[in-house]
Specification:
This protein has 375 residues and is an alpha/beta fold. It folds into two domains: 9-147 and 278-370, FAD/NAD(P)-binding domain (3-Layer(bba) Sandwich); 157-274, 3-Layer(bba) Sandwich (FAD/NAD(P)-binding domain). The protein is built from ten helices and 17 strands. It has helices spanning 18-28, 45-49, 80-84, 91-104, 166-169, 183-194, 222-233, 328-331, 335-345, 354-358; strands at 9-14, 35-38, 109-110, 115-121, 124-129, 132-141, 161-162, 175-179, 198-202, 237-240, 245-250, 256-260, 265-268, 273-274, 311-313, 319-320, 323-324. Strands 1, 2, 3, 4, 5, 6 and 15 form a seven-stranded mixed β-sheet that branches. A five-stranded parallel β-sheet has the order 7-14-8-9-10. Strands 11-12-13 form a three-stranded antiparallel β-sheet, with no helix packed on it. A hairpin with a 5-residue loop joins strand 11 (245-250) and strand 12 (256-260). Helix 1 (18-28) packs across helix 9 (335-345) and helix 6 (183-194) runs parallel beside helix 7 (222-233). The longest helix is centred in the N-terminal third of the chain and has 14 residues, at 91-104. The chain is globular. The termini are far apart. The structure holds flavin-adenine dinucleotide. The site of flavin-adenine dinucleotide (FAD) has 34 residues, from helix 1 and helix 2. The chain crosses the membrane at residues 12-38.
Length: 375
Amino acid sequence: MARRTSRELDCVIIGAGPAGLGTAIALTAIGGLTWTVVERGRIGQTFLDWPAEQRFLTPSFTGNGFGATDLNAVHPMTSPAFSLGVDYPDGPGYARYLGAVAEHFGIAVRSRTEVHRIHAEPRRFRLATSRGALRARTVVWAGGEFGDPGRPTFDGAELGQHASTEPAWAPRKGRVLVIGGYESGIDLACHQIGHGAEVTVVDPEHPWDARQGSDPSFLLAPRTRQRLRTAQQTGRLTLIGTARITELAALDDGRYRARTSTGTELITDSAPIVATGYGSGLGPASPLFARRPDGWPLVDANDESTTTPGVFLAGAGLRHDQLRFCFIYKFRQRFAQVARTVADRLGRDASALEYWRSAGMWTDDLSCCGTECAC
Ligand SMILES: Cc1cc2nc3c(=O)[nH]c(=O)nc-3n(C[C@H](O)[C@H](O)[C@H](O)COP(=O)(O)OP(=O)(O)OC[C@H]3O[C@@H](n4cnc5c(N)ncnc54)[C@H](O)[C@@H]3O)c2cc1C
């Protein structure tokens, strides 16, 4: 169990979401380490902040005993489906699961403690937090993406309501525009159609048509595709995949006008919904990472910053070449990798982590991740 101490710690983990807690549990396998988890809100704060209607799109199912750990679990001996009794958890439910996991594994979390700055000093880090300073030899950034909503840059974009906010989910009638057609956009379109709205989704990448490959990071989830088919059958859903929105304006009568790159005008009866994703959300860790050409943080084979040794990245912002670790079942494969690298750096025995490998929750050879399904 982590010991609370004001002296220099071996590791500070920032964020008590699935990535931070999962990494912390992996660290418990290494004896004698001092570390802590720092969280600006409460355990699972992102899930507590999810709009009330938001649910998981990755299903939970307790296949653990047969080597198929629940997709949303952060440790092979746990299963949200088992503890919550649902297959698509909502935000508060999943936060409850995370709280139970933290309690079971004795993970001490310093809640209501926000990290404002991380200073890299020779062989150590000094963290300025809302509750005083911390010193550590290594740092794991697990601050998540939810606090970094991606916003388009066209004129009037600020009039849109981001998919991460409650107003985007408030039931609407009349004509609704959704900008962005990947998971969040289609989720919201189906949701508003369920409330009787007439919805237009605009996305020049037309993700709803993607059929290439079998990686769910590039395809709509089966549940989303199923809901999309039902929404299309209402005749109240229009998908525009040949244009992008170039301008939004508020009209005097309370309606909104959107212009597209092909010159079409769309009039909507409520503020357009912006479902254009999230950034990498590095927050105060941002200066400690170089960026890939696509803007995502650059890490080495151990998920360690290429510019600041001793700083690691855990969570949905993780990228290796073409691989996106944007789901729990993907990024959890790296908890043991980070824990082992921290242990190696500090000269500690990490052999107990082999349990994670035998439980199928440690991938260190990433060349195996690209397998395509034959049918
Ligand atoms: C709308 C939405 C739906 C999603 N659905 C799924 C899904 O169905 N399945 C799936 O696998 N993935 C899903 N994802 C991806 C998803 O983000 C994650 O799987 C998960 O939340 C990422 O976990 P995390 O621990 O990296 O980040 P988070 O869960 O966001 O946890 C980060 C924590 O860090 C804290 N924090 C941030 N900054 C600081 C700071 N400066 N100081 C202290 N604490 C800080 C936050 O308060 C938060 O509690 C979804 C994402 C979104 C946005």
